[in-house]
Design goal:
Length: 109
């Protein structure tokens, strides 16, 4: 079993237009050089520090791909959407409903 690495796009513009989203995972043979380009869109990427390959929790990109939304509290009533999808706001403000994630993208009948 090869290690799985988590990558993020170097620019927010590319992250929003890539079919993989702002973050993605990529399985590589141990010792391979890190990816410099996204295999999905060709944009520049950076490898992120992550938990070891033996893990019990899910990465944010895994949660997003499974249809979950994860909000991390930044301040009173302000949350960062760490599983945002194309078109979602980076920050969710409970006083501004227009910043809420679009659940129609993730919930299907």
């Amino acid at each position: 079993m090869s290690p799985v690495y988590c990558y993020c796009h170097a620019s927010e513009e590319l992250a929003g237009s890539c079919p993989a989203g702002p973050e993605f995972e990529w399985e590589q043979v141990a010792g391979d050089l890190p990816l410099s380009r996204c295999p999905h869109c060709g944009g520049p990427v950076e490898r992120m520090l992550s938990a070891s390959s033996i893990r019990t929790r899910k990465f944010n990109c895994e949660l997003r791909d499974l249809g979950f939304t994860k909000l991390v509290r930044v301040d009173d009533g302000l949350f960062e959407n760490v599983t945002r999808r194309h078109g979602d706001e980076k920050y969710v403000d409970r006083r501004r409903p227009e910043t809420f994630p679009d659940l129609k993208k993730t919930v299907a009948d």
